[in-house]
Amino acid sequence: MESLNYWPMLETSINIALGAIIAGVSTWVVMRQKDVYQDKLESGDRRVDMLEAISADVGQVNHIFAKYSALVIESYRFGEQWPSGRREELSQVNAELVKEFKKLADAETRLLMLGEKLMERSLRLYGARIAHFRKEVFVGRQDIKENEIVSLKQEVATQREKFYDLLSKRYDRLLAA
């Protein structure tokens, strides 16, 4: 009769142990899935941060290019009457633009690291359009017409829009994920 009293205690102990094992395994599985999900979120956050940094770098180049193009167009309109102070300002802005082109190259590299070949190509074309503008429009060149200057500047703006369209689509997809 005494052996019968131990059986319910043994059965209860086994049930408690199995419950603890099941709870432990379930907790481990849930925590592991949470870690994987958290890693994916952090990876997405890093990509978003990198795209935001690229956007800021391109925005800085665009700002300096806008100053450069405005000063060059102004020099074209004024011709020989253009003040020397503005000429010095253009020289500074030109040097700043050349310096900022390094950020554009760095942004292209980051895009390639992210596997964004189409976006990198678009950014490279944007930089090439700016370089072409600088080659064609410069202080002292009077044989170019103003509508040609405007057309060249519009090509730069169009390429910038194409780049930002690609960037915006990728950015939106990452935020939606």
From TrEMBL:
Membrane-crossing residue ranges in chain numbering: 12-31
Keywords, ordered alphabetically: Membrane, Transmembrane, Transmembrane helix
UniProt keyword annotation of Membrane present: yes
Name of protein: Energy transducer TonB
